[in-house]
Design brief:
By secondary structure, the protein is mostly beta strands. About 0% of the residues lie in helices and about 50% in strands. Strands 2, 4, 5, 6, 9, 10 and 11 form a seven-stranded mixed β-sheet that branches. The N and C termini lie far apart (about 40 Å). The model has no long low-confidence stretch (mean pLDDT about 90).
């Protein structure tokens, strides 16, 4: 199984920024899809940002213009840059990847993002 590890979360004040990383050991990959998800207590897990192998991106309406997904092509790593953070962004953030010949990566433990003054 393939599992990516999330990191970079923390406590930040409203209006602040965080950069989340999603990484796995192994060779360089070219995934079909890379996505960031989040889940708050009592709420469903939702897709926050995704990018396809063709470079198409999409974002949840709530984060458009504030979040950006990107990939380091030399590493098994991709990122979520989060700017202008709001308390509503508070959640456990997960990454998930679909890889050729492998399929979906397993859900990891996530990284906690807390936005509070």
């Amino acid at each position: 199984q393939v599992q990516f590890v999330e990191s970079g979360g923390g406590l930040v004040q409203p209006g602040g920024s965080l950069r989340l990383s999603c990484a796995a050991s192994g060779s360089i990959f070219s995934p079909y899809f890379m996505g960031w998800y989040r889940q708050a207590p009592g709420k469903q897990r939702e897709l926050v940002a995704g990018i396809t192998n063709g470079g198409n991106t999409n974002y949840a309406d709530s984060v458009k213009g504030r979040f950006a997904i990107s990939r380091d092509n030399n590493k098994n790593t991709f990122y979520l840059q989060m700017n202008s953070l709001k308390p509503e962004d508070t959640a456990l953030y997960y990454c998930r990847v679909n890889l050729p010949g492998v399929g979906w990566s397993s859900w990891g433990q996530g990284t906690q993002v807390t936005v509070s003054s």
